[in-house]
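Dear support,

I submitted the protein below through the web form. The confirmation email said the job was done, but the results page showed an empty box. After a refresh the structure appeared. I'm attaching both so you can tell me whether what I see now is the final result or a partial one.
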Amino acid sequence: MITDPIADYLTRIRNAVMANYRVVEIPVSNIKKEITNILYKKGYILNYKFEDEPKPGKIKIALKYHPVTKLPAINKLERVSKPGLRRYVGADDLPRVLNGLGIAVLSTSQGVMTDKEARKLNIGGEVLCYIS
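What the results page shows now:
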């Protein structure tokens, strides 16, 4: 049993990037699907696929690397709000990652979104992770 599935998700991606894997498989959940969709929209991953066929489904994520230098698109994944210490921010205190070059993923009343989207909607929420 995993006590923090989001931290497990981030750790699997981080380990796959460090080992230069092309594809990583992760157990599926709705919040992981949302975070994966955000990573794809923001250009941090190449592609993804949700497989729900065998009952404990999987997310297959194709990682993105620079074609010439082979450097990964994801440099840093950091879990912020943990089960032991939740971190909530208001609309006025939304974090900026690398002065706007990275993204913060938030869970809000309107769903899972980036810090820029939350700033535009003027809502706060729980800061799940930082990605740069």
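Response: this is the final, complete result; the empty box was a page-load delay. The mean pLDDT is 95.
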